[in-house]
Amino acid sequence: MIIRIVMKKTFRLGLILMFSLFIPTAVLHSQNTKKEKLHDLYKTQDVNGFMPEQVYIKTMTQTYCKNYSFVVVDGRIYVKRDGDEKWILFLKKGLPFSEESKRKKSYFKTPEAVREICADADSLFAFDENGAMYNCYINSGTKEKLFVWKKIFGFPKKNPLIQNDLVLNKRGWGMGVRRQDILWYTDIFGNEHHYGTMGLETIYFLTEDGQHIRFTDSGLPPDFSRSIRCPLDGKFVAENISVSGDTIFLIGNDGSMYTRLIDFDTMGCDPMFFKYTYDYSAQKYKGTNYLSNYSEWGLPAEGWKKQEDIPLLGIAKLTRAISIAQNGQGNNARELRVAGTSETGKAGYYFKQLNEKNWSFKPVKLDLSEEIFLDNTKPSELPKEDYAYKGYLSKNDTTLSEYTCSLKNFSLTSEEKSILTITRNKESVSIVVYPIEMWTYVLRYNPGYDGSARSYFLTAEFDSKKFDGLSNDFKNLLDDMFGDKNHKLFAFNAEATNKYFQIDFTGKELRSLSSPLAKSNKYTMFMTTDGAAEIHPDVYKGSLVLTQPLIQEASNSDLLMPEKETYTIRDRSELLKKVEANENYKAKVQNEIDLTKEYEKKTDTSRWGYNAIDLLTTVTFLNKIDFPKIKTMTSYGSELMNTNAESFARLADYKEWCYPHILEIVDLRIKAYSEILEDFDGDEISVKINPRFCNTFPEYFKLVDLPTSVDGFSSSADSKAQLAQITFISYVPGFLLQLQDETNTTVLIELQNSAKLIYSRSSEQQLSDHPFIVPVTFQTVFVPTDNSGEKKTTVAKIENLSSKKGSLVWDGQTLSISVKNTPFTSVELFRGNAK
Hints:
8-stranded antiparallel β-barrel; Neuraminidase; alpha+beta; Lipocalin; disordered N terminus
């Protein structure tokens, strides 16, 4: 039986209990907030030569699109319109500049230099020396004003996009526009869909390992949190990337090439604006008709297509310099180019249309340095990175002990195809699931790896006839769980990290005219990569949150002085650095708290605002109308908004609890170091550090001989009890109170400002004369039920502790904990004598 968790702040105690059993060993990725400079890439990227007559191959410094070619020279952008002979500075400056006044939010300072560019259709994108992005619309087709630089991007709130450590060491990047020039998109079933009224621009980064592609677009928050795998389920190692019309073109060191049209909309992630289906149905409108935008888009999205190999004769060689450009309407209107040499050694490029079989060679003037030629001694395939999970199945919060579930072939990217297996004794059933990452409107770093989770819609694919040969209990369970859900769009919700995968869903609809109050069964599959069983999801998730890089940074050597009893004036400069570093860390933690609270507030406000609109459209039957897309927007909008709000509420709750304790330790560190500096300023040559200074809560508690374990009695619960100090997490000041009766209820007793009280306490004070008294708060986590399902009276009293305060008193022999019932009265919760 999974223990029910009833308190509002669910995982505080759960994560602590979990930590005593499990400590994650994986190191999470940390966000690099420091601005990294991009360098001048002309030596490797100026494939077309210096101020070329024509740009034939797109690179990070030379590019072309409809009507224009662009090059970067010494940090400035030069442009040449088709048919012109002379290169000129783009918009007379060659640098992005703001036309807004300094008082407007959209104003930006002109950068010193541009380092990287890419153009497609009607758009030019550029990154400056600090990795900040700018974009400018240069052709008709968009509702935006032409030839105006912007430094903000994304939706619903535009923000700057700055390359971080996830993409800084990229192998290449490209940008694609899917709008009026292409006009329509053809889905996997051959149905055409008009681009609508806005279209989108998507930016793709081929990561340092060559096996993943990070992306964002004009309809997403501007970050690098989303990704797709390279071909062969991520085994293919791409040397370079080029993009046009959201069709990606990759090449490997062995000369193998792949293409794929894929973006956030076509992969199925945008159900608020598009209708999707996994079932074939012929659509009546062609892509030239605007109404085809309203028809269902077939899923899953198209896969990677291996392009025909280029036959190399004589001394012909290929380079990593590749290029793709849209040149007509629809998916297939793309020309591919690969720079290289002919069989006689002439420079030029191989080219063909996307769906043609044969390549042709065109000799042109290119500057092909030796280092850009492909090296077939390097691997073009490496082991793929994916995850396998195993765990349990629960029904209505009760673990079904005879069943296990597992998921394999999952890679934490934005769209997947995985295998879910459910096993009962020697029987098992496997079904295909298609996880599609949910849209979110908040900025993220690297969910799945940074302590936060990715949220997914899941659609299942299976043949229910395979259930027929199973035992009746297994078949009935599967029928309730999956029954009519084959290809039922987004029938399941999931969240995942590199440590766990959780699926939540309901069984068959049980309400009917005869049973209007009947509720559907609620199911949860909780699986972990380590196969940890019978662990409540909140407990497991809480333990992972504690491994966030910002928390681990609190004990970073950059913040700590070498441990010694006495410091001299030789240590002054180092002490000053440590004080400054700790102040900066404090500011970073506080900013994280404020930002999370802001996101929590915004997501909650957005949730209730959307739900109000959703209710209005329901009672007025407007949600039945799909022109404009009211029905489409309301079908999944509520689920998206609620998932966002709940995720951030949980994260905010954790940080609200944990971070202040970390700041308490850091504040005392700053105080201790600053006191030494004050003595130096008073002409002291050497100073002993305050003997009561420590770097963890367990160390502070030793200064007052606070016991790690006490056996005693809880009069409130009328039960024997044990009190255990939390020593295995250095930044959690508290005890676990475990009732030793049939309920096994556990309470977290959290000490408030305990380290500060101990630091200021005189070492001469004896506990017998001056007991250590500290305020505490309580969190009751596990509230069991008896056989009838009724809460016992004593347990109910313990549960109510979560809203009360109290105090802990330790006199060197006896430890007692009391709870305030009123501002003037208290009752004893626990009393025990130290061993």
